[in-house]
Amino acid sequence: MSLLSRTTASPPGVTEPPSDNLVVVPARHPWRWIAAAAVLIVVAQFLHGLITNPGWDWATFFGYFFEKSVMDALLITLELTFAGAVLGFAGGIVLAPMRMSKNPVLAWVSWTFIWVFRSVPLIVQLLFWANLGYLYDRLQIGVPFGPGFLHFETSTLVSAFGAALLGLALHEAAYAAEIVRAGILSVDSRQLEAAAALGIPRLRQFRRILLPQAMRAILPNAANELVNLLKSTSVVYVLAIGELFYQVQVIYGRNGRVVPLLLVATVWYVILTAALSVLQHYVERRYSRGYVR
Amino acid sequence: MIELSGVHKSFGTLEVLRDVTLTVPAGSVTVILGPSGSGKSTLLRCINHLEKVDRGRVRVDGELIGYRRAGDKLYELSERHILKQRAKIGFVFQTFNLFPHMTALQNVAEAGGGIELLERVGLAHKAHSYPRQLSGGQQQRVAIARALGRQPKLILFDEPTSALDPELVGEVLDVMRDLARAGTTMIVVTHEIGFAREVADTIVFLDEGRLLEQGPPTEVLDNPQHERTRAFLSKVLV
Prior knowledge:
The complex is a heterodimer.
Chain A: H1 2-9, H2 30-52, H3 58-65, H4 68-99, H5 104-119, H6 122-130, H7 132-135, E1 138-142, E2 148-153, H8 154-157, H9 160-185, H10 189-197, H11 202-232, H12 244-255, H13 258-286
Antiparallel strand pairs in A: 1-2
Chain B: E1 2-11, E2 14-24, E3 29-33, H1 40-47, E4 55-60, E5 63-64, E6 67-70, E7 73-76, H2 79-86, E8 89-92, H3 104-110, H4 115-120, H5 136-148, E9 154-158, H6 166-181, E10 186-189, H7 193-199, E11 202-207, E12 210-215, H8 217-222, H9 227-236
């Protein structure tokens, strides 16, 4: 603005310096400073409340943060997350190509599976699996509609942990299938045409050409789903499994310190999510080969 | 030797190829000319069964492509067999279609080739570059090296220079010229008339799915018999 005002104010050709060494003055942004200051005040007030409010009871928080029963519960949360993710994505990798298959039976079965397991709330599903014994008191393996060879008592086969894992895995598989399908759809169809023209066998096309490229679209969504799964494990508290959320409830049921113990669970979930985000960064970098100059 | 006899192909109600009969001797170069939409690409894609023909036969070295004959019936081959047949027929796409997550050398290796093929197209020094780090012309040369990986009996080129900047066309045509000199059987869809005149043994003119005219370049380019060919050439040869 100073340049402009000087040019218009001064008579032409009198005080103007030679045009090749004019100084550039960057535009100023006073509102950025004002907005930043306003937000910082609010944040400072919040942090002050967090530290000084005795209700948070930081002593109890630190007393239980690394406590043995909390650590054991954390391990169960991690086990459920890991097993749920592995089984879920294994299911998704089978269901996605099924849904895209030219075989109408496979496509229909996959579509129906995804529809059902995306429709039923996780908590409802978990209770169903835990009560499977009411529907079928014995399970058997054998000829379809014919005689069976192996018999199980449902209640011994499906423990609470088994029911939780089954529920999480089926729920995850439905979502993972859609994530994998989105990844496959994101790959240019000409890639498979090029692979077909080279006579590369079908399975190798999927493994070497399609999946590595689909991974770029799959990974951000898969990481999202994994974080979601980590938090969803808290729902299995309804089956009285000693995961993180269940365990802190047991403790505050005993001592009445609700807020600091909820905070223990919260901070652990935040830390685990941060760890997953770091992992995501490195895995995504691995699959970006060839996409950055 | 490649033989097409009475090839028909429709997409829905649109007839793309009508009764195309063509013989390409081993070691020769055939250039297919024709206006856009005349069925040139479809014809190429029928030769390696990327498109199924509705009627007629395609034979490469006497072997029926895509089908097996038993008595008076043609049985469609399984995908596994078709993939095996395709391995003997190289295909070079207009848009290169290199695998972006693999280096130039990995692309060629995926087809069973090695560094010597990159050397042949003058790109051994780019072996460890990813497609995105290469110019269009270089990408197409890698794609040609990849097509050579299976030691094909025949290479099909679908407008290999149409997606390139004008100054990059020459390097790709040079590679194709070398292949032709080495006795590679080639069928080329292109609009590069100069290349056709210089390299082709036979020029074929396709219009609305019909093969209107074929012969050596001097005949088809300089003395076209058909009105449509004359009209097309007058637009292309400016």
